[in-house]
């Protein structure tokens, strides 16, 4: 009997998940961050799950998009993009804006749509895999590796969210200096076996961050290290940091803001530059590649438009001799599973991917995804190989319902103002 792949129901569940007080150049992470969990159900009762950003601007697109999917086939992945084009984006959401203060690059109507489509694409692939008895990587053409390497994503962080702010405690401790960063890196290796390290920079003056990377290089000799100040530095500062750390960095990530500045740095830095800020859409590739502004593009299936778009990006990068790896924002196990499936299919993946997952103590899966030796094993179970924990989902959704709206949109600057009322988002370049 052939499977009936018709979509008969779509469930959208916005949730708030605990996030530690991780610092970046914009501010600090909120105690709870929004995500959207997507379930797509077929006429045969097969359910697929996906995950994407949960801020209001995504939710307001996801709802009409979901309605248009009823009666379509889960196998019609190309159709998702056609349907997305029919969903109107409110101009106020995109005019002159960047996403999360620029952490995810420009904000356009298309990119907003793609960030929604990606969650649905993953849900459809999960359902399709379950219906056909095939893992998602097989639907993407098959895995070329059995496990995917991730890097330890180190953050400067406070020991706890500001006093009086409802939050979940974490056991990572504070990290506000080189010793704290090294201690955090050691905890990452002990808990997960990571062997490469990325430090989120742009938080302290560059000399302090140079000292932290030097301390890491001393503590973990020969291990790949990266520093990512999210465009906080001038060209001059970027070149100075590159000169100071060139001998220990695998790559420098988004030292300066925008393709022209990145190109200036790349021309003289002597260290490869990676980005998840100046190349975040296919339209930004020609200029950046022509100018030699980036040597590694950090894909993110959420905003590039899904797993197949990630494969297309990898093919373009391969064509131009540019490396590819993966960027990450706060995400849960569904997205980690999706990232792992697609990463398993990309032939030239030569850098460990980023993942925030270790920072997320809460998940919506019955079993957490495990890192062993810094790697996630590629699942061969049908679909993504994950199972939704409905009680957890309901609990995290209840938290979202109970929120008065304060936390439903990620705002790192607002979270910083709770501790430092005078905080204003630093103008760029900050140093
Ligand atoms: O540039 C990056 O790698 C990121 O923007 C990743 C995340 O957004 C990270 O900086 C964060 O969540 O603070
Ligand atoms: Mg980055």
TrEMBL record:
Pathway annotation: Carbohydrate acid metabolism; D-glucarate degradation; 2,5-dioxopentanoate from D-glucarate: step 1/2
Catalyzed reactions: D-glucarate = 5-dehydro-4-deoxy-D-glucarate + H2O
Pfam families listed in its UniProt record: MR_MLE_C, MR_MLE_N
Top-level class of the enzyme under EC nomenclature: lyase
InterPro entries reported for this sequence: DgoD-like, Enolase-like_C_sf, Enolase-like_N, Enolase_C-like, GlucD-like, Mandelate_racemase_C, Mandelate_racemase_N_dom
The protein's required cofactors: Mg(2+)
The keyword Membrane is annotated on this UniProt entry: no
UniProt key word Cytoplasm: no
Mandelate racemase/muconate lactonizing enzyme C-terminal domain: residues covered: 178-272
EC number(s) recorded for this UniProt protein: 4.2.1.40
Alphabetical UniProt keywords: Lyase, Magnesium, Metal-binding
Family: Belongs to the mandelate racemase/muconate lactonizing enzyme family. GlucD subfamily.
Name this protein carries in UniProt: glucarate dehydratase
Organism: Streptomyces parvulus
């Amino acid at each position: 009997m052939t499977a009936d792949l018709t979509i008969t129901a779509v469930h959208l569940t916005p949730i708030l998940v605990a996030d530690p007080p991780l610092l970046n150049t914009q501010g600090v992470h909120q105690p709870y961050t929004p995500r959207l969990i997507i379930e797509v159900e077929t006429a045969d009762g097969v359910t697929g799950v996906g995950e994407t950003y949960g801020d209001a601007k995504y939710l307001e697109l996801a709802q009409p998009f979901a309605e248009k999917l009823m009666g379509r086939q889960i196998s019609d992945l190309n159709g998702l993009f056609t349907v997305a084009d029919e969903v109107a984006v409110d101009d106020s959401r995109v005019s002159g804006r960047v996403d999360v203060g620029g952490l995810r690059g420009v904000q356009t109507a298309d990119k907003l749509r793609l960030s929604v489509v990606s969650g649905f694409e993953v849900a459809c692939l999960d359902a399709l895999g379950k219906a056909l008895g095939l893992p998602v990587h097989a639907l993407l053409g098959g895995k070329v590796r059995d496990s995917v390497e991730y890097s330890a994503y180190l953050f400067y962080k406070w020991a706890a969210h500001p006093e009086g702010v409802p939050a979940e405690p974490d056991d990572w401790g504070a990290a506000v200096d080189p010793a704290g960063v090294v201690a955090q890196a050691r905890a990452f290796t002990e808990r997960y076996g990571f062997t490469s390290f990325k430090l989120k920079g742009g938080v302290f003056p560059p000399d302090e961050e140079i000292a932290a990377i030097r301390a890491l290089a001393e503590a973990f000799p020969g291990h790949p290290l990266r520093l990512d100040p999210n465009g906080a530095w001038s060209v001059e500062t970027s070149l100075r940091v590159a000169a100071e750390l060139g001998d220990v960095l695998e790559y420098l990530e988004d030292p300066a803001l925008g393709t022209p500045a990145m190109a200036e740095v790349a021309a003289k830095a002597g260290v490869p530059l990676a980005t998840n800020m100046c190349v975040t859409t296919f339209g930004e590739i020609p200029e950046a590649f022509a100018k030699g502004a980036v040597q590694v593009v950090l894909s993110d299936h959420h905003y590039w438009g899904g797993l197949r778009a990630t494969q297309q990006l990898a093919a373009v990068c391969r064509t131009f001799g540019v490396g590819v790896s993966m960027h990450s924002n706060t995400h849960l196990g569904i997205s980690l599973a999706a990232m792992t499936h697609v990463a398993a299919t990309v032939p030239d993946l030569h850098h460990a991917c980023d993942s925030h997952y270790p920072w997320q103590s809460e998940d919506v899966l019955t079993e957490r995804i495990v890192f062993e030796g810094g790697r996630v094993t590629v699942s061969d179970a049908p679909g993504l190989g994950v199972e939704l924990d409905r009680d957890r989902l309901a609990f995290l959704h209840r938290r979202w319902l109970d929120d008065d709206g304060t936390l439903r949109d990620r705002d790192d600057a607002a979270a910083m103002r709770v501790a430092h009322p005078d905080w204003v988002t630093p103008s760029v370049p900050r140093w």
